[in-house]
């Protein structure tokens, strides 16, 4: 027996071959996934919306708390004016990724002050060799041994930190860098539609061919 409190995976819902309206009703009755904890680099909803880009930060005044960011449904987001539908899908997609601990650049920084994380070059032994890596260090701590390894950055040449959006600290010869929150740092840019996109491509190509033949009026 299917009840409103039943937990049905999407694969089972598909196998039941239920009408779309019924499927939506069953999905809406399922409990929401747990709300993840903020991170030092992403401490609030405004920062999250700023990082994922696509101008979603303009909706920050409507989504003011961390709990609401991760609990609002697609219908509720639409009622708040988050349009078009692809923007809502994109936001929900990033929410799921964040729940799974899948962050964009800087998301794993643990020492962050006023939205800025500091990184330094650290040498670690790898067998008989030494490898240079990038670590996040607490403010004012110059000894990289206390830092934690961060993803998305590397060391070039003698010791220059390289990576997107970083700002090298003057006088450090590239061995110290800072990363601060900026609009769209985590944005996944939309692809450019060619010939009207997948749905319209056949029709558009047909019209182009007809135009070239001079038969389209």
CA distance, first residue to last residue:
59 Å
Major sheet characteristics: 6 strands, antiparallel
Helix content: 25-40%
Low-confidence stretches: 1-8
- Looking at the structure, what is the overall shape? extended
Number of strands: 8
Order of helices and strands: HHHHHHEEEEEEEEH
Strand content: 15-25%
- Category from helices, strands and their pairing: alpha+beta
Would you tell me the overall average pLDDT?
A: 84
User: Number of DSSP helices?
Assistant: 7
Radius of gyration over alpha carbons?
Answer: 24 Å
Describe this protein's structure.
The protein is an alpha+beta fold and 217 residues long. It is 31% helix and 17% strand. Strands 1, 2, 3, 4, 7 and 8 form a six-stranded antiparallel beta sheet that branches. The chain starts with 9 loop residues before the first helix and ends with a helix. The relative contact order is 0.11.
Nutshell version of this structure?
This protein is an alpha+beta fold and 217 residues long.
Notable traits:
7 helices; alpha+beta; 8 strands; extended; 217 residues; 31% helix; two-stranded antiparallel ribbon
């Amino acid at each position: 027996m299917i009840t409103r409190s039943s937990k049905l995976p999407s694969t089972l819902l598909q196998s039941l071959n239920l009408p779309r309206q019924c499927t939506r009703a069953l999905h809406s009755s399922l409990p929401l996934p747990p709300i993840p904890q903020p991170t030092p680099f992403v401490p609030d909803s405004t920062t999250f919306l700023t990082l994922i880009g696509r101008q979603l930060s303009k909706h920050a005044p409507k989504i003011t708390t961390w709990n609401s960011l991760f609990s609002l449904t697609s219908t509720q987001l639409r009622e708040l004016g988050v349009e078009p539908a692809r923007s809502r899908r994109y936001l929900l997609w990033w929410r799921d990724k964040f729940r799974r601990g899948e962050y964009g650049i800087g998301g794993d920084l643990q020492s962050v002050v006023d939205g800025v994380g500091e990184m330094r070059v650290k040498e670690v032994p790898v067998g008989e060799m030494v490898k240079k890596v990038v670590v996040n260090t607490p403010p004012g701590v110059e000894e990289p041994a206390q830092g934690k390894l961060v993803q998305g950055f590397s060391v070039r040449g003698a010791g220059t930190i390289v990576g997107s959006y970083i700002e090298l600290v003057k006088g450090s010869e590239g061995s110290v860098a800072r990363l601060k929150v900026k609009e769209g740092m985590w944005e996944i840019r939309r692809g450019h539609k060619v010939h009207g996109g997948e749905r319209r491509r056949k029709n558009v190509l047909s019209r182009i061919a007809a135009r070239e033949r001079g038969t389209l009026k």
